[in-house]
Fold:
Amino acid sequence: MDNRKTTTKKTAVKSKTDRRRNKRPTMWGISRIDSGFTHGWFVRAYKEGRTYSKLFSDSKIGGKNKALKAAKEHRDKLFSELGKAPAV
Structure:
């Protein structure tokens, strides 16, 4: 018979919201859209029941990285105007 002790590691359980927030803070409010002929970064924010959104298309802006940079700049400006916490 095996006499080794087994230990269980206890970890704090995070809420679903905490897991989402800590996933990629630099990407808060930004999602990737790759569906059919649509490819780009989608910025979305909510305040007082209103939705603010904008798509930054890869083809119109000049590539995936340039579109992401433009989306982050727009998101930061939008969050500033709405009084939300900065994403970074």
Residues 27-82 form one domain. The mean pLDDT is 82.
